[in-house]
Amino acid sequence: MSENELVRLERDGDIGVIVVDNPPVNALSPGVPEGIIASLNAANADPAIKAIVLIGAGRSFIAGADIRQFGKGRPRTPLGQRTYDVMDAGTKPIVAAIHGYALGGGLENAMGCHYRIAAHSAKVGLPEVLIGILPGGGGTQRLPRLIGAQKALELIVTGRHVPAPEALTLGIVDAVVPEGGNLRAAAVAMARAKADIRPLPRVRDRNQQVAGLAANPGMFDAMRKSIARKARNQKAPYNCILAVEAACTLPFEQGLAREQELFLELENLPEARALRYAFFAEREVARIPEVTPDIHPRPIASAAVIGAGTMGGGIAMSFADFGIPVKILEASPEAMARGMERIRNNYATSVKRGSLTEAAMAERLALIEPVSTFEAIGQADAVIEAIFEEMGPKKEVFTKLDAVMKEGALLLSNTSALNIDEIASVTKRPQDVAGAHFFSPANVMKLLEVVKGAHTSPTTLASVMKLGRDIGKISVACGNCDGFLANRSRAPFSVETIIMLEEGALPEQIDKVMLDFGYPMGPFAVGDLAGLDIGWASRKRRAAENPNYRKQPISDRLCELGRFGQKTGAGWYRYEKGDRTPYPDPIVADIIREESAKLGNPPHTFTDEEILRRLLFASVNEACKILEENIAYRSSDVDVMWLHGFGFPRYRGGLMHWADTIGVQEVYNQISAWHQRYGSRWAPAQKLRDLAATNTSFRDAKPGRG
Ligand code: 3H9
């Protein structure tokens, strides 16, 4: 037996089987590498053992280094004393037996072994770049030697998970056990078959795979160029490239040392901290106090969607994409025909792009069944209403749902802002009603905002959270209020954007700041893409309903000129035929100047920092109110929503994590100063005051008062 319980050495005849047993995913937590080394030493020293298998207990091989240990200043194991070094120095063949995941340090350990065999369902990869670091356990030196620099570069820079059959084709694993096969038995058999083969095939010795590439630096520059837009402001992807470059230009040992240097440059950068934070925040969302372990989510084997508009169609596709049959209900045959046509076109575009096969498209379309009566959907396990945002018609739909849906069905509304309790009130089963707010395009965007009404039962809440996960979404729960968590926290950002225009800022100036910050597009370019006419119609409706509704004269004037965005060739920008590039337009600048003067706003020069902070601090303040009102379970939930609903740059962690990097005191001081200058819209939330008074980070903020 090895020195601790995290790793044990078992015997299978003349084969030593090293079992890593560190649930849930066999991360390389303190004690695990030490345990592997002790077992390797014991197996190498035991004359009765001819070969060794390294395998994981439970659901996975090894999911990598323990991410919680990064940034803690733990001393690193010196090069030459790591598990891989002990494997390289060993005298007996080692077979890695991979099931579940072999990621990061997991794959690095597998590549330290002499042979690799994987279960059919296993996945392997070096995803370190996704948490802002690089494979620091020799991965950048061994993978190019195993599969060639070009392919290794692609895998290391994207961090993608490779399914076992592809890993076999690439040469990452030597064999795949067919579905239903016994991995451990196959690995032991392989070890026995290889027991006498010498020299031991070490990945580190396969220099022919990287030789000659030193003369081909073009490959690395091409990769740098291809990631330039997506990886802007980030260092990890570039260090990954440098490390693979080192594999091609330096002897193995020197390459390892270079890898180590490049790794250490990254570990404590704000980028790596933010990405680690995001990783754990995404897992934290699943923890909902009222969903106790005795609550069992209801299985969802079939679904229905009410409304075949853009949203309804996208939601139906989300189910079909994950193999769940879905009925789509639309009263008007014309609207249904248009809706189904849109769905077909969306899939056809994916086929054209090569991301979907014709066969998969046919399978998915076959899962979407158009129906025209409520009776036809009565047996669905979950129904999602996705009609237009008006309370009256939504209540009518829920009244009908209450009449036809089977007992225990989830009755969900895709509303983005309306009161879930009022919707639920027309049913006799408000415990089964909740919000399921998808983001557009629903089949693409990852976020599902799950809204809990006053009567939503913990089982319903747990079921909707799981339903989201089952269709590949990140489900985040929140309470019921106008705009819920996502749109309510985003609204002040939008208000501030418009106010800054009225003070003389130009769309291109604001967009550039947000692009530089890391958003894929600025808010005005997004507006032009989405179309400005929808907002215009809603402003006119609201102004008619509410005489105090705050007008948006600049936006209105653009729309009055027929400038609805890209589709009309002009909006906040002008566009040239067949070109989506936004060009700043002097007409817009003139309108801004005129309206700003009419409002009596003195000319104002904006710094980039003012623009960024005014937009984001406005939302931080609102998020504090949301926390205070117990609408959010924790501030990191706000971050997950902003990452997956609004395109917030992941390497900045999320709105609240970013605010923490500035500091709660400074955020409070700035908001207070703007409160003095601009008035009530900047009044600091009580929660923000409290956090500043106690110097508590947003991360540690508890929901509720105080
Ligand atoms: C690395 O290896 C660096 C090396 O190059 C060496 C340098 C010297 N650490 O995601 P799940 C927890 S960097 C700590 O819900 P799934 C996770 O927090 C690492 N904890 O399951 C969760 O905890 P809880 C490279 C980890 O089935 C629980 O396990 N590796 C780690 O949906 C279940 O996780 C990666 O980046 C970890 N490494 O997905 C892989 N992994 O229950 C990161 C998981 O308390 N991991 N946990 O909330 C993943 O991508 C997914 O977890 C995985 C499973 C795909 C493995």
Largest sheet geometry? 8 strands, mixed
How many beta-strand segments?
A: 17
Radius of gyration: 28 Å
Can you give the mean pLDDT? 96
List the strand order in the largest sheet: 12-11-10-13-14-15-16-17
Stretches where pLDDT falls below 50 for ≥5 residues?
none
The number of distinct structural domains comes to 4
- What is the number of helical segments per DSSP (H or I, 4+ residues)? 28
Distinct ligand kinds: (S)-3-Hydroxyhexanoyl-CoA
Taking the alpha carbons of the first and last residues, their distance comes to 52 Å
**CATH topology category name of the largest domain:** 2-enoyl-CoA Hydratase, Chain A, domain 1
Explain what you see.
With about 700 residues, the chain is α/β, with parallel strands linked by helices. It has 4 domains: about 5-270, 2-enoyl-CoA Hydratase, Chain A, domain 1 (Alpha-Beta Complex); about 305-480, 3-Layer(aba) Sandwich (Rossmann fold); about 505-600, N-(1-d-carboxylethyl)-l-norvaline Dehydrogenase, domain 2 (Orthogonal Bundle), CATH 1.10.1040.50; about 610-695, N-(1-d-carboxylethyl)-l-norvaline Dehydrogenase, domain 2 (Orthogonal Bundle). The strands form 3 sheets. It has an 8-stranded mixed sheet, with helices on both faces. Helix 5 packs antiparallel against helix 9 and helix 19 (about 505-515) crosses helix 24 (about 610-630). The relative contact order is 0.06. The mean pLDDT is about 95. Bound molecules: (S)-3-Hydroxyhexanoyl-CoA (3H9). (S)-3-Hydroxyhexanoyl-CoA binds near residues 24, 66, 103 and 105.
